[in-house]
Amino acid sequence: MNYQQILYEVSDRIATITLNRPDRMNAWTATMERDVRHAMEAASADDNVRVIVLTGAGRAFCAGADMEALQAIDPSEIRRGESTPPFDMNRRADWQTRYAYYPAIPKPVIGMLNGATAGIGLVHALYCDLRFAADNTVFTTSFARRGLIAEHGISWMLPRIVGHANALDLLMSARRVSSEEALRIGLVNRIYPPDQLREQTYAYARDLADFVSPSAISVIKRQLYEVPFQTLAEATIDANREMQIALKGSDFREGVASFVEKRPPRFTGR
Length: 270
Fold this sequence. Notes:
By secondary structure, this protein is α/β, with parallel strands linked by helices. It has helices spanning 30-45, 67-71, 120-127, 154-162, 164-173, 179-184, 194-211, 214-226, 232-247, 250-260; strands spanning 6-11, 14-19, 51-56, 60-62, 109-113, 116-118, 130-134, 138-140, 177-178, 190-192.
């Protein structure tokens, strides 16, 4: 696939998707949307990929929507996402909308936030499973300062990550948030000096790729993203069903054998 506005590469069982409009601080466009969706689907389907890293080229992760495109947008276009083809028919429909499909990917998605993360860029960061940021990264929801509302499910996702009061603060004020504050309120998992961000992110990603069962990760990820729609009883019954399956799987046998034999595991994802 010849992508126009992203870079895509696979190495050490890690797929890296890089937003590639550094001259525009990786401002989001319809072309970028198509490129990222295709690359995510490719990484999800590739048995050689166990972890996905989403990042940006240059000094920003994504500074929000391309303002030239936003000025010319047709208001009816915003509802196009309501009919987006499902990413995975076996996953909950709530995670099949225009941008909220990252949780339907059965592999960990790490947002490596290397700079400004604003507006729709923040939306994409929130849909990643984990967020590692450079310690000079600045975050903002942006919407209220552009006369816009909380878009693409951020009103649902943000409170579940930072809490209701913090979400109201970030959305209503649309103020700039430092990486230190982002870490304190749980918006990001970890922060690193810019010159260490890549090394530390990929060290974590390689640890997942090399030492963690892909089948276990897939189920655990699905469990956590379905919990907001379940009762405790439903979550427990689901876990018991999945445990029965896991106990019959080769990854379970390999996990026990590698521990007993004091060697690295050779998981197959089955």
